[in-house]
Every structure is written in structure tokens, then in C-alpha cells.
Amino acid sequence: EDKYKKRNLRLWHMCMKKLLEPVIKGFNRPEAVQCSDDKVRIVKPVVAAWLGDRPEHEKVCSLVGGNCQV
After folding, report:
1. Residue 57 and residue 53: Cα distance in Å, rounded?
2. Quick check: helix, strand or coil at residue 10?
3. How far apart are CA 7 and CA 21, in angstroms?
4. Is residue 26 packed enough to be buried (19+ CB in 10 Å), middle (13-18) or exposed (0-12)?
5. Residue 25 pLDDT level (bands cut at 50, 70, 90)
6. How far apart are CA 23 and CA 25, in angstroms?
7. pLDDT for res 67
8. Largest alpha-carbon pair distance within the chain?
9. What are the phi and psi torsion angles at 42 (to 5°)?
């Protein structure tokens, strides 16, 4: 049971690292983006913290009772 928790934690961190790679690169390299008002702006990504309880976390991650819906 403990080895599964460790495996899941490693998997979570590996996934987050993969998902955030483009964002991390963007911190060092601003990008020109065309906005909805047709103006071009130089942007850098911003990461914000989010806190939530378990039911809220499961809802945001599309989980039901700890199981993925996909």
C-alpha cells in the first residue's frame, strides 16, 4: 500500500513537471501574442496558487471518488 502511494506521488510530480515545462520556459522568454482586441502584446506566463479541499480538488481534476472518469 505504501509503495503505491509513493508511486502515485512520483507520477503526480512527473505529470506536473511535464505540464509546466512550457510555462517555465516562458518565464525566461516573453512572447508576442495577439489579443482579442487585435493588438499585439508581449506576455509572460503567471502561475497562481490554488487551495481547495478534497471534493473540490476531485471536481477540478475530473475525479470521482479517487477514480479518473476517462
Report:
1. 6
2. helix
3. 21
4. middle
5. confident
6. 5
7. 57
8. 54
9. -90, 125
Q: Which stretches of the chain are DSSP H helices?
A: 2-28, 54-60
For 13-24, how does the pLDDT look when each residue is reduced to its tens digit (9 = 90+)? 999 899 888 878
Report helix, strand or coil for 58: helix
31: amino acid identity, one letter:
E
For residues 26 and 33, is the Cβ–Cβ distance under 8 A? Answer: no
In the block, residue with C-alpha cell 522568454: 29
The whole-angstrom separation of Cα 25 and Cα 35 is: 21
Report the amino acid identity of residue 30: P
How many angstroms separate the CA atoms of 26 and 44, rounded? Answer: 6
